[in-house]
């Protein structure tokens, strides 16, 4: 299987994962008159299919024990369970995130949710796999926390007409972030304990867990929506072709970022790879501000908080990257 053999290449893959994780939601923003619960079926299928494709290509370059199918045959069954469970936890968090984007916009939902996820995921992953400098990792996490607070301040400084965002949407962001940070320890266990799963195997079974859990989580939200009226599967089959294509594309973008992040983690450790990948809110906020004009009409105070949020996310990335080499 293909794995990076230098920090530079690993860092490039982690940055790519951050761009993918911060950009996939544009596919949902581009959908018109199509509910996120219906869009999400295509998205979940897309993340599984791209993970499978990468496993049979990049993950099967060699025919040794590390290749995808050989690894699947040799790995401990408990690690499959951990990975499937991690996918199910991620999927619930991601459904809540998409709902929060629907309610609050990219530049609010992503930084709050994923900022919280960064803190939870890095700390819990480091406990299981203490790789990297703990002090620098802690400083990076602290910067991420400050960035989340600044994003909330930016939202609070918007004029009333622009900040008609409910407390419910912020609560959804927070719950999504806590859950989003909890999938990393499941993956860390599967990559470090017993006969481990390779990054490509984890990508396949993680996204399979996400897809299968849609039959629990997504059906629940179809019947008990956070936004709007309940929907059924008839709406999915009547959905626009563009909605289905964008859902698959969004899944392919996120799935590519996830596999790249897992492959880079093979070199740096999950805590560091996850932390740099979770700089995605900075990417999402840039899309929200410049492409979707979510802060149009904002006052100077809101813009100042937003600029400081970007600064602290950049500091978080640099500190976490440095944690890989410092002793």
Task: Please characterize this protein's 3D structure.
It is a single chain. The protein is mostly helical and 327 residues long. The protein has one domain. The chain has 16 helices and no strands. The protein has helices at 7-23, 25-29, 36-56, 68-74, 77-104, 106-128, 134-156, 167-180, 183-192, 199-213, 217-223, 233-237, 241-268, 270-277, 280-291, 300-323. The longest helix has 28 residues, at 77-104.
Describe this protein with a few key phrases.
single chain, 327 residues, mainly alpha, 76% helix, globular
Report the major sheet: none
| Coarse structural class | mainly alpha
Determine the number of helices (DSSP H or I, runs of at least 4 residues): 16
Shape: globular
- Runs in which pLDDT lies below 50 for 5 or more consecutive residues are none
Q: Number of folding domains? A: 1
Provide the succession of SSEs.
HHHHHHHHHHHHHHHH
Strand content: under 5%
Q: How would you state the average pLDDT, rounded? A: 87
- Radius of gyration (Å): 19 Å
Helical proportion? over 70%
For the termini, the CA-CA separation is 29 Å
Total beta strands: 0
Give a short summary of the structure:
The protein has helices at residues 7-23, 25-29, 36-56, 68-74, 77-104, 106-128, 134-156, 167-180, 183-192, 199-213, 217-223, 233-237, 241-268, 270-277, 280-291, 300-323. With 327 residues, the protein is an all-alpha fold.
Topology (SSEs and partners):
Elements: H1 7-23, H2 25-29, H3 36-56, H4 68-74, H5 77-104, H6 106-128, H7 134-156, H8 167-180, H9 183-192, H10 199-213, H11 217-223, H12 233-237, H13 241-268, H14 270-277, H15 280-291, H16 300-323
Helix pairs in contact: 1-13, 1-14, 1-15, 3-10, 3-11, 3-13, 5-6, 5-8, 5-9, 5-10, 6-7, 6-8, 6-9, 6-14, 6-15, 7-16, 10-13, 13-14
């Amino acid at each position: 299987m293909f794995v990076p053999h230098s920090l530079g290449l690993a860092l490039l893959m982690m940055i790519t994962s951050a761009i993918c994780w911060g950009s996939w939601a544009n596919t949902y923003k581009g959908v018109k008159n199509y509910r996120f619960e219906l869009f999400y079926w295509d998205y979940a299928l897309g993340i599984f299919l791209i993970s499978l494709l990468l496993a049979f290509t990049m993950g099967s370059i060699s025919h040794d024990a590390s290749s995808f199918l050989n690894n699947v045959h040799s790995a401990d069954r408990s690690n499959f369970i951990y990975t499937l469970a991690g996918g199910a936890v991620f999927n619930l968090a991601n459904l809540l995130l998409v709902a929060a984007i629907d309610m609050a916009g990219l530049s609010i939902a992503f930084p709050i949710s994923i900022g919280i996820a960064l803190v939870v995921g890095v700390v819990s992953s480091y406990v299981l796999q203490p790789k990297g400098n703990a002090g620098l990792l802690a400083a990076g996490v602290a910067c991420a926390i400050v960035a989340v607070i600044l994003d909330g301040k930016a939202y609070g400084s918007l004029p009333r007409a622009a900040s008609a965002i409910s407390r419910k949407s912020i609560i959804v962001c927070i719950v999504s972030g806590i859950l989003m940070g909890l999938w990393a320890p499941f993956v860390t266990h599967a990559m470090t304990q017993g006969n481990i799963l390779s990054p490509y195997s984890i990508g396949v079974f993680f996204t399979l867990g996400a897809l299968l859990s849609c039959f629990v989580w997504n059906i629940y939200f179809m019947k008990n929506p956070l936004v709007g009226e309940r929907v059924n599967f008839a709406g999915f089959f009547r959905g626009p072709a563009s909605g289905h294509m964008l859902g698959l594309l969004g899944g392919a973008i996120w799935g590519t970022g996830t596999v790249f992040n897992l492959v880079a983690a093979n070199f740096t450790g999950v805590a560091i790879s996850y932390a740099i990948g979770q700089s995605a809110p900075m990417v999402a906020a840039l899309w929200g501000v410049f492409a979707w004009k979510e802060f149009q009409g904002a006052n100077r105070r809101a813009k100042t908080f937003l600029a400081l949020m970007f600064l602290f996310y950049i500091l978080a990335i640099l500190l976490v990257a440095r944690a890989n080499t410092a002793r």
